[in-house]
Automatic annotation (TrEMBL):
It comes from Neophocaena asiaeorientalis asiaeorientalis. Pfam families: Stk19. The keyword Transferase applies. This is Serine/threonine-protein kinase 19 isoform X2. The gene is STK19. It comes from the Eukaryota. GO terms for molecular function: kinase activity. GO terms for biological process: positive regulation of Ras protein signal transduction. Belongs to the STK19 family. The keyword Membrane does not apply. Keywords: Kinase, Transferase. Residues 1-31 are annotated as: Disordered.
Length: 318
């Protein structure tokens, strides 16, 4: 009897220890850094490129980012910073300063350095001597900032007014060039990628803007629409689009409903996250369970409840 009790007690504690250790693994969707940039990179790795024959750039949704960066204000601010068009004139001027005298003669030049270095407080009077190494350091910081700015693009996916996709600019450029190669509209697309994309970070473009600012003619805009680079928003306005994105949208909408149905059909309309991810994905969830669960959490289609067994996904009460 004593031997039996001696054997059972450690086993019970052993099970508890394994369950507690498994809590960390039960929430594999939770991010660590709180960085929107890192969240986007992690989500894009979940995108099934093979499903679309690598014809589409990997796409994440803004709602998915919220599942990894719960503070939506911080996430939106970081995403806007990543989309913002680059201003390289300031960097070129700052780089030129390092080749000449280390003494600055303009307050505006110092302001650029102050902003690049992230300094705060009152400005320094014109003519203040600044060490050359500070200028070089400012160049390095500004170069990194310019690389980060304009790194991602946000697109309107269309199936919902709040549905916005996030893609890396370089992936977008590569896939668009590949899609239009040898087509009659290739010239208009290349012009758009070279002039509009780096200079304008807007979700949509106006007719006056395209014609007067970027020098496009009406036939060229029509070619961009035919190429799938732009899609009509309303009269004289177009959304930035991804050629062939309709296939992704169709898969996404069906998969979202299928995975949401898994939670809805569960007992009490709730399901452990670890249990959901361990199940076989429905045929309609071709993008993968993890990809869709990020969306359900970030879009607040399910509530996340912390339990001793891990995160519980529960349908909101209606």
């Amino acid at each position: 009897m004593n031997r039996k009790r001696h054997r059972l007690v450690p086993e019970a504690f052993g099970q508890k220890r394994r369950r507690e250790g498994g809590d960390v693994e039960a929430d594999p969707l939770r991010g660590e850094s709180g960085s929107a940039r890192a969240a986007v990179a992690e989500l894009l790795r979940l995108f099934p490129r093979v499903l679309f024959e690598d014809a589409l750039p990997p796409i994440a949704l803004r709602s998915q980012v919220y599942s990894l960066v719960p503070d939506r204000t911080v996430a939106d601010r970081q995403l806007v910073r990543g989309v913002r068009a680059t201003d390289r004139r300031r960097f070129r001027a700052l780089r030129a300063l390092t080749r000449f005298s280390p003494s600055l003669t303009r307050s505006t030049s110092y302001s650029a350095i102050q902003q690049a270095l992230g300094l705060s407080g009152p400005g320094i009077a014109p003519g203040t001597a600044v060490p050359r190494r500070m200028l070089q350091r400012a160049c390095q910081i500004m170069k990194k900032a310019l690389q980060e700015q304009g790194e991602i693009r946000i697109i309107q996916l269309g199936f919902d007014s709040d549905a916005q996709g996030i893609i890396f600019t370089e992936d977008y450029r590569t896939r668009v060039l590949k899609a239009c190669d040898g087509r009659p509209y290739a010239g208009a697309v290349q012009k758009f990628l070279a002039s509009v994309l780096p200079a304008c970070s807007d979700l949509s473009f106006q007719q006056d803007q395209m014609i007067q600012t970027f020098g496009f003619r009406d036939p060229e805009i029509t070619q961009l629409v035919n190429a799938g680079v732009l899609t009509v928003r309303d009269a004289g306005s177009w959304w930035l689009a991804v050629p062939g994105a309709g296939r992704f949208i169709k898969c996404f909408v069906k998969g979202r409903q299928a995975v949401l149905g898994m939670v809805r059909k569960a007992k009490y309309r709730e399901l452990l996250l670890s249990e959901l991810l361990g199940r076989r994905a429905p045929a309609a969830a071709r993008l993968g369970l993890a990809y869709h669960v990020h969306d359900l959490i970030g879009a607040q289609l399910v509530d996340c409840v912390s339990t001793t067994s891990g995160t519980l996904l529960r349908l909101p009460e209606t």
